[in-house]
Automatic annotation (TrEMBL):
The chain crosses the membrane at residues 33-53, 59-78. Keywords: Membrane, Transmembrane, Transmembrane helix. InterPro entries: DUF4191 (IPR025445). This is DUF4191 domain-containing protein. Residues 219-233 have a biased composition (Low complexity). It comes from the Bacteria. It comes from Streptomyces cupreus.
């Protein structure tokens, strides 16, 4: 019992420190966050106190209002902190991969399954909606990357639907802050075992490609492999 109490006491400072850090990070992008939170808290508490005085129960309604004021303030803080975080991540390399890692349970994410010299990249997520390819980078360049990766997925797992999304703010693109919501709205067409089987097939393909022997340097001009294979039989 004493151990659990001490563990809880040790965890509380950590939570408070994390909240304070989140607030500081949010305030960098949202200068009015303090005023907004104070306004939400006072508004909720004031409404309940007013109702309490009107019906003759200011103490009961005041306690309820205090609890709901804390809850409402926490909700508003969470949303504005999330918005500020997405604003800071917007346009940063790998931002989409960070969002995909937090889509939720049931999704398996593989970052950077395809990339070109311009650092445009395609990430892959597998879930009950099927395979989702998420591209970030120049919209004109990533289309060819998506097309090639989608063609490969259709060849390997032809029975699994493949969706493709481009992260951005242009027409036909998905904003970074809406990426998670967009993926969760996709229709669920696969069962749990089918998702596992799809991941296993894609993982096996990745292992096969990573274990494939490749030359460590360029082949000298004019050099030919000996007859009978690389062992020179």
């Amino acid at each position: 019992m004493a151990r659990s109490d001490s563990a809880a006491d040790a965890a509380n400072p950590g939570r408070l420190k994390q909240i304070a850090l989140t607030y500081k990070m949010t305030r960098r992008a949202d200068k009015k966050i303090g005023l907004v939170l104070a306004g939400v808290f006072l508004l909720i508490l004031g409404v309940f106190l007013a109702i309490g005085f009107l019906i003759g129960h200011p103490i009961y309604l005041g306690i309820l209002g205090l609890l709901l004021a804390f809850l409402g303030t926490a909700i508003v803080f969470g949303r504005r902190a999330e918005r500020a975080a997405f604003g800071q991540m917007e346009g940063q390399p790998g931002a989409a991969a960070a969002v995909l890692d937090n889509v939720g349970r049931g999704w398996t994410t593989t970052p950077a399954v395809a990339m070109n010299r311009s650092q445009d990249v395609v990430h892959r997520a597998v879930g009950k909606a099927g395979i989702v390819l998420v591209a970030e980078g120049n919209p004109n360049r990533v289309k060819s990357l998506l097309a090639a990766e989608k063609k490969k997925m259709n060849r390997i797992v032809a029975d699994v639907p493949v969706h493709d999304l481009i992260v951005g703010v242009g027409e036909g693109q998905v904003e970074l802050k809406k990426l998670r919501t967009t993926m969760l709205k996709l229709p669920r067409v696969l069962s749990g075992p089918q998702v596992t089987a799809t991941n296993d097939r894609l993982r096996a393909l990745g292992d096969l490609m990573s274990n494939m022997p490749l030359p460590k340097g360029p082949m000298p001009k004019g050099m030919k492999l000996p007859k009978g294979g690389p062992n020179g039989r």
